[in-house]
Amino acid sequence: MLSRNLASQPLSPLDKRRLKVAILSGIILILAVILYYFNPSIPGRLYPPSPFRTLTGFYCPGCGTLRGIHQLLHGHLWTAFDLNPLMVLSLPYLFYSYVCYSFPAFTGRKLTQIFIKPTWIWWTLKIILVYWILRNIPFPPFSWLAP
Question: Does 5 fall in a domain?
Fold first, then answer.
């Protein structure tokens, strides 16, 4: 009877957030293990080809990301940077965002979050678009941006 009453109680907002963080962390860990053991550079193993590259023949801003993360997981920072510099440069921000989201769920204290002004978001979009265009120019130094 006691377990029946506990099961019917709704989760508190803090418990819901902890559950979300636990699920998200589990998914990230599982994907990291898969990406560590299965190299995306080997065609036809596990990962589908890039749809944008397959349809257009051009690189997108994300091309090289899986291979880059695989290299990072093996400790090869410069190889990862060579595959997708934008991804490597964005990882500290993504990590900080994840910590800011997860930390309060377990400690009850919030971390100082970096406020991003709308103009910065627009500049980030512009940088991504310029990067997208430049990595498809077929001569140096722009071809160095291709994965």
Answer: no
Asked whether residue 45 is domain-assigned, the answer is yes
Residue in this structure with the two tokens 């965002």, named with its chain if needed: 97
Look at residue 6 and tell me if it is in a domain: no
Would you list the DSSP string of 96-118? HHHHHHHHHHHHS-PPPPPP--H
- Does any domain span residue 20? yes
Which of these, 64, 70, 62, 74, lies nearest to 34 by C-alpha position?
70
Cis status, amide bond into 138, omega within 30 of 0:
no
Determine the structural domain holding residue 133 and report its residue range: 13-145
Q: Point out the residues of the chain with pLDDT beneath 70.
A: 1-8
Q: Which residue has the tokens 């934008």?
A: 86
Q: How many domains does the chain have?
A: 1
Spatial separation of the C-alpha atoms in residues 108 and 12, rounded to whole Å: 13
pLDDT digits (tens, 9 = 90+) for 110-139: 877 777 788 888 998 999 999 999 999 998
